[in-house]
Design goal:
two-stranded antiparallel ribbon; mainly alpha; globular
Length: 149
């Protein structure tokens, strides 16, 4: 499989979220660019935001995902998009990577928008938490007359 590209225009955001010196806390928001791209692909998928990625962008080698046993996320995003297991066939490798890249790029754009809405959050952590919490419905456990054991 080919490497996972990202738009060159996203580099300042990638640097902000993965460089400990940029976070304001001394610890990066994401420990690796691979982890950031996985998160961004999830954001892109849930917000239905896909963006084309030029072939000239920076890339994370596919083997990094594979070696860290996170290559399954690439396939999961493609499967969620296509809703057909045939998508996962070896002959569709380029399409699988393209889908993941485009959702990751869309997620990067969405996250940039969220962070711009909350410019005082230097690390971006609070902005991300707030937006994620808004996406997740509150589910309270139902405890009505629990039966004694």
């Amino acid at each position: 499989m080919r490497d996972i590209r990202r738009p060159e225009s996203a580099e300042p955001l990638v640097e902000r979220l993965t460089n400990p010196r940029m976070s304001g806390t001394g610890a990066p928001v994401f420990s690796t660019i691979m982890d950031l791209l996985i998160f961004c692909a999830g954001v892109g998928l849930t917000t239905n935001r896909r963006c084309a990625v030029p072939s000239t962008g920076k890339a994370v080698p596919y083997h990094i995902f594979e070696r860290n046993q996170k290559d399954g996320y690439i396939f999961l995003v493609a499967l969620a998009e296509k809703k057909d297991a045939a998508t996962l066939a070896v002959e569709n490798d380029d399409e699988i990577i393209k889908i993941f890249e485009e959702y990751a790029a869309g997620g990067l754009e969405q996250i940039a928008s969220w962070l711009n809405e909350n410019a005082t959050d230097i690390s971006g952590v609070q902005a991300l938490i707030t937006k994620i919490q808004a996406q997740v419905p509150v589910v309270a456990p139902s405890v009505q007359n629990p039966s004694p054991l």
